[in-house]
Amino acid sequence: MKIRMLIVDDEPVICQGLAQTIPWHSLGVEEVAIAFNGKQALKKMAQQPFDLILTDISMPEMDGLALAEYVVQAYPDTKMIIISGFDNFHYARQALRLGIEDYLLKPVNVDELIGLVKSVTATILERKAQQTSDEEEAVTQLLLHSLFQTPLPKRIEVKQAQWFSAYRLLISEVVGYSALQESLSAEAFAQVAESVKSAVEESCSSHGLKHVSLYGHENELITLCYSDNPDVLSNKQLSNVWQDAMKQSPYPIQTVASSISESFAHCLVEYEQLHQLMDDVRGQSVGLTFEGPARARVAMYPLEFETKLVEAVLTNDASSVEACLHQLIKSLASDGGSLSQLVDLCRKLERTFQQKLQERLPSKSFQEIDLRLQKDIDLRCYNTTSAIEQIFLRDLIDFLGELKEADHSNWVIENIKRYIKKHYQQDLRAAEVAEQHFITPNYFSMLFKKETGQSFSEYLNGLRIQKSSELLLTTTNKVFEIAEYVGYKEYKYFVQVFKKQLGLTPTHYRRLNATEETMKK
Questions:
Q1: Residue-level pLDDT at 517
Q2: Any idea what DSSP says for residue 249?
Q3: 3 state SS for 270-307
Q4: Which residue numbers delimit the Response regulatory domain (predicted)?
Q5: C-beta separation of 390 from 372 below 8 A
Q6: pTM score
Q7: What angle do CA 165, 170, 171 make, to 5 degrees?
Q8: What is the reported pLDDT for 515?
């Protein structure tokens, strides 16, 4: 909070001396102006009020006491200290009667003046902080009443014009909110909303922009920026504020802004218009948007994807299903439609797809599958194309399960075995493999053991040892190099597993089984 001080004295040397020789900034005074009489002081006050005035008494045109009497009436929050060369009890008594903070005699004791100013500025800052808090609470109540029809105290309604003459409404969403909910711990996810709100509020405050922020939904931050000066709310100014906010926010945010308005009577309409604007731009990018793109309604999805998906499901090819769906979503997104349009088209495709599967295989129960995509989807949470793609993919996985309900377990395990063979050189973990195939770790362990007769680690070790034994006989690579190649970080563990499975150490195995040609190498 800035404190502005005005020094008033008809002697320029004293004005300049006081303004320049005392380190006012260290006392919390960030701006110091001067005037040479009471009338000049009032002109400056009319342009922009001051928090503190240091004034002489004896000045031409308007003396210090006359100035004090006017300021006390017109600017009751402004504090005044009189500095005078008159050691006159009458002047001092009159000044104190007017409510002046103190009366100092010239020549001024600098330490006394500094101590007095420090005390007065502390009082000013305390008052400003309380006023700001009261104002923000009142504006928040006004915003809640305008948007959600909460009760509004009469005193707030009456004082609305005192706080601002112009405002802009903004709503922000964390991009990829549903993915964060799945990837973060419950404790970390609970901090997402507050961290984004803090980033927005800190950026607004650092730019000197008055504001209040509140959540209208778990992923909808509503921010009201207001001022008596509409220029402060220009697109350029808001862009600077939000650029800093996005740098401070630990998560990407997408924000839409209303135009500059003067009456809260329009606030609800603007809020509804912002919802439409957010619907137009959601999932497209991050940043601040003032105007939505002109969109043509995307009426239909590419028909070839319908055929490809049906074929992929009927052949139990999960990888083809996933690849085909990804291409479909990518194609729909590139057409320029909104996320809600994309969801509508995916729902239409899914219903058609479900019907065709049922027609081809009437003995199955595709129509009874509880499809996630057909339910209400909160796009403020699932606000990216990838989130919608994941919902659709889980429905397609259910179609695959229904297609071969009896053989579903075998089909899942066969897919997992193919996955392991492809990635066995990596640091594979059972929980991660289970997640990749949309089953729980416990179910995965039970199912894998049932279908293969081995645990996941036994199967993985068997595959790695088989590959390493081949490499021992067909290459001249060192044993530790082969161990690393097939996925073992610890050489001793590799030797231990190898000997357990084949009864020999890798080196002994190579010596006994190497061909003459390999021996020559």
A1: 46
A2: -
A3: HHHHHHHHHHHHCCCCCEEECCCCCCCCCCCCCHHHHH
A4: 4-121
A5: no
A6: 0.67
A7: 150
A8: 59
The answer to whether the CB of 225 falls within 8 A of the CB of 210 is yes
Query: In this structure, are residues 316 and 403 in contact, taking their beta carbons and an 8 Å threshold?
Result: yes
Helices in 427-490 by DSSP H: which ranges?
A: 430-436, 441-452, 456-474, 479-485
Per the DSSP assignment, residues forming a β-bridge with 169 are 224
The Cα 278–Cα 172 span in angstroms is 9
Q: Give yes or no for a contact between 279 and 254, defined as CB atoms under 8 angstroms apart.
A: no
213 with 197: CB under 8 angstroms? yes
Which amino acid would we find at residue 251? Y
Query: Is residue 192 within a helix (H) or strand (E), and if so which, with residue range?
Result: helix 192-206
CB 82 within 8 A of CB 103: yes
Q: Residue 205 pLDDT more than 70?
A: yes
Token output for 207: 């730019």
Q: What is the β-pairing status of strands 52-55 and 29-35?
A: unpaired
Q: Which of 136, 183, 141, 195 is nearest to 163 (CA)?
A: 136
Pairing of strands 210-217, 220-227: antiparallel
pLDDT in tens, 259-293: 999 888 889 999 999 999 999 999 887 899 998 66
Beta strand spans in 41-149 (E): 52-55, 79-84, 102-105
CA distance 7 to 28: 16
Q: How many helices (H) and strands (E) does the chain have?
A: 23, 10
